[in-house]
Specification:
The chain has a six-stranded mixed sheet with strand order 4-3-2-1-5-6. The protein is elongated and about 65 Å long. Helix 2 packs antiparallel against helix 3. It starts with 11 loop residues before the first helix and ends with a helix. With 210 residues, the chain is of the alpha/beta class.
Length: 210
């Protein structure tokens, strides 16, 4: 028994075609529960279609639906967030990668994200990407530091200025190559929390986010 790839897998009436025991020893409420998860979480869609509908599906699965991602694209008014509490993440780079400092605000149950990105002015990564980075820099969406390596002093100064406007409760950071700036930011009064980039540290919060 198998549901054709051209048939609607979201139509509950089609489930009987591949599950003759549905409603008998195979409980309908459990299948419905798995279906709801598959609709909400793209990574669970292939699992549902493979095990409940016996479909041959591609292994590639998206973690977040693009429609859900796009629905989160409303602009954030940073002036309205002045004085609000937030948690931040800092990921450093050196010369051929982006340094990111991202603040997350919870405003009455709505999560608002304010990111800052840096790249060395003389960094050359890929021609098409460099053109995109230049455009984002002109639009004010990316900072460029002088030279061919990231200037951590500018990162620190920016974080301190942001700390004057927002209540930054903690800054989670990848400790790799970040000891000096972490010590300096702690000296500036910030609470620095090391978060190693690995399965042990990232698995549980990633699953919770999903």
């Amino acid at each position: 028994y198998s549901l054709g790839l051209d048939e609607d897998w979201t139509d509950e009436a089609n489930w009987l075609k591949t599950n003759p025991a549905l409603g008998d020893f195979k409980k309908l409420d459990k299948v419905r529960k798995s279906f709801k998860r598959a609709v909400l979480i793209p990574s669970a869609e292939n699992t549902f279609r493979r095990f409940h509908l016996n479909q041959w599906v591609a292994q590639e699965s998206r973690w977040i639906k693009l429609s859900a991602w796009d629905a989160c694209g409303d602009p954030v008014d940073q002036e309205e967030l002045v004085g609000e509490c937030c948690y931040a993440g800092l990921d450093l780079s050196t010369n051929k990668d982006i340094t990111a400092f991202v603040m997350l605000f919870d405003v009455e149950g709505v999560l608002k994200v304010v990111p800052h990105f840096w790249l060395p002015a003389k960094a050359q990564i890929h021609r098409q990407l460099d053109e995109q980075f230049d455009r984002w820099t002109r639009q004010g969406l990316m900072h460029r530091t002088d030279g061919n390596v990231i200037d951590y002093r500018e990162i620190r100064n920016t974080i301190n200025k942001l700390g004057e406007d927002y209540q930054i409760e903690e800054i989670g950071h990848d400790p790799w190559n970040a000891t000096q700036i972490a010590v300096e930011l702690e000296g500036d009064g910030f609470t620095m929390v090391p978060i190693r980039q690995g399965y042990y540290s990232m698995s549980a919060p990633t699953k919770e986010f999903e």
